[in-house]
Amino acid sequence: xxxxxxxxxxxxxxxxxxxxxxxxxxxxxxxxxxxxxxxxxxxxxxxxxxxxxxxxxxxxxxxxxxxxxxxxxxxxxxxxxxxxxxxxxxxxxxxxxxxxxxxxxxxxxxxxxxxxxxxxxxxxxxxxxxxxxxxxxxxxxxxxxxxxxxxxxxxxxxxxxxxxxxxxxxxxxxxxxxxxxxxxxxxxxxxxxxxxxxxxxxxxxxxxxxxxxxxxxxxxxxxxxxxxxxxxxxxxxxxxxxxxxxxxxxxxxxxxxxxxxxxxxxxxxxxxxxxxxxxxxxxxxxxxxxxxxxxxxxxxxx
Length: 302
Fold this sequence. Notes:
28% of the residues lie in helices and 23% in strands. By secondary structure, it is of the alpha/beta class. Strand 1, helix 3 (49-57) and strand 2 (62-67) form a beta-alpha-beta unit.
């Protein structure tokens, strides 16, 4: 999954056109929250779209952005991929590209770097094992991340650990009915969760008063190649029965021909997605029993 996310950002496949719209809707819902967050954790935001908007909405807050697929920033030699020395050899284009990909060094899990543009702190780490202190944040923000995980108990428990008492967790993700029109054409399409399962998982992980609702949106494309590219960015390719090797041009041509059934009279391809919005509050920790507790015994009166 980490490699797929890194490839998405190298190829500018981030699905930002959708998550920008979702972000606006999430921020609109925040107007009903009276408390002003002091420390904000933004999850899965390598393009910093959400961090920038949250920084404008809460200029007095401290921002921390956690993702494991940071793309190297221009001029950032510490994160730039290694390259072979000039003049060593001149292979074919495909061989050279393969060589460079093998030499790329992903960001270290605990690597942090100050981000001057937003005043935020970037952290490269797995959301299931975050290198963060307990009870650190009073707003946790996740736009389009949760449907990538199949380890919700672990992920939600980590968020609960890092949240302050009464902290708010605001989130969005793709729901189970997303891209339903493609299931017959692409049986290895990534599966999406049901919002009722998410609500149950939140309660079991210690989150209180979860509110989860659903909205639907129709996406349209002018050509099949753009549809396929956005599908890779939004839905990934994490099915256990996915192809292990490279697909051929013949396969791609057959897929594009099969997608013609989705083309409407106006020439556009259209697919419906299900968006899940929700929030929950961090419930107080249960009081722990002391090692020794007095037990008082009184004789029964006659």
